Amino acid sequence: MTQITSTVDFDQDGKQVGWLRVPHSVTRSAYGVLPIPVAVLRNGDGAKLMLSAGNHGDEYEGQVVLTRLIQQLEASDIRGTLIILPALNLPAVLAATRVSPLDTGNLNRVFPGDPNGGPTWKIADYIEHTLMPKVDVVADFHGGGASLDYRPHASTHYSPDASDEHKKKSLEIVTKLGVPHVMVFERRNKTEGFPDAAIRQGVISIGGEYGGTGSVFRPGVQLVQTAVERLLAVLGIKGELPANLPEPQLLHIPVPKSHVYAPEPGVFEPATELGDAVREGDLCGHVLFPENPTREPVPVTFSTYGDVVCKRHPGRVEAGDCVAHLAAPWPQGG
Predict the structure, then answer these.
(1) How far apart are CA 258 and CA 109, in angstroms?
(2) Which residue stretches of the chain have pLDDT < 70?
(3) Which domains does the chain have, with CATH numbers?
(4) What are the beta bridge partners of residue 150?
(5) How far is CA 102 from CA 93, 116, 146, 194, 314, in A?
(6) DSSP conformation letters of 226-290
(7) CA gyration radius, the chain
């Protein structure tokens, strides 16, 4: 049973802005809590949607859009239910880090969580077992964080065993969000992520990466804003979809070889840009050694084909750091 308490009533009509209180007993505060902000807007029957950002604290586009949404939206503007969490892993958000400084927890890697674990594990347990059963659709907005730069994409995640109806509905939603590229993930042998929690709860999972480099990517903010507006419209919560929506390109990450890793420490000089199409054997970049300038650079190559959709942002690398990854056309999407 969760130890987290809420100051809002999820079954009450109207607009409420309050807190999820995560117990956190420390020397400074024996009975302290971590107050995670939450807004609930409810106006009669209709679709039930949860929007979240700050799963990783150094990813900002979703945090910006959802903060403004709470300020601007009223219950009378919608039909149905909205739960909005703009700073999901609050300790990481406040520290501007991917993982929580309190327990080193990466929220997107600890589901289904533990009601008796550290703060990150408590949050994951509450999301999966208390919040997700209240909604039909979840949308968790990401960016590349401080270490990565992404070509923006929306995404949907489902199990290979999901019903045809569930898959069809997931694709119907994600392809109407106004994002030119859509990633489709069939979650095989995955258990620990936010999307895996949604799959276990039978909830449609929408996500995406909308920027990166640990900054606020303005085009990414606009894409998230558009995606939220379209999501509300396609679910019948608020507004209408524009006519004649263009079809996005459907992509997937086909094999583990789609990721490229630094072979040893040094400075990585990339040889490609986001959106470049590459083939197996093409140059991804070089690892150079300024501390030993007589040493020849080490070339790093791609092991498969696809488009470069993600690149490392910091120049300095350690062995095993991801420096790029590829995506390819989704076979079922033509």
Answers:
(1) 20
(2) 332-334
(3) 5-252 (3.40.630.10), 256-333 (2.40.50.100)
(4) 310
(5) 12, 15, 19, 20, 24
(6) HHHHHHHHHTTSSS-PPSSPPPPEEEE--SGGGEEE-SSSEEEEE---TT-EE-TT-EEEEEE-T
(7) 21
Query: Hunting for tokens 């309190």 — which residue is that?
Result: 102
CB atoms near residue 45 (< 10 Å) = 9
Q: Determine the Cα angle at 68 with ends 198 and 124, to 5°.
A: 25
Terminal CA-CA length for the chain = 45
Task: Quote the pLDDT of residue 85.
Answer: 98
State the pTM of this model.
Answer: 0.96
How many other β-carbons are positioned within 10 Å of the β-carbon of residue 322? 15
CA distance linking residue 17 with residue 37, whole number of Å: 7
Cα 26 from Cα 291, distance rounded (Å): 43
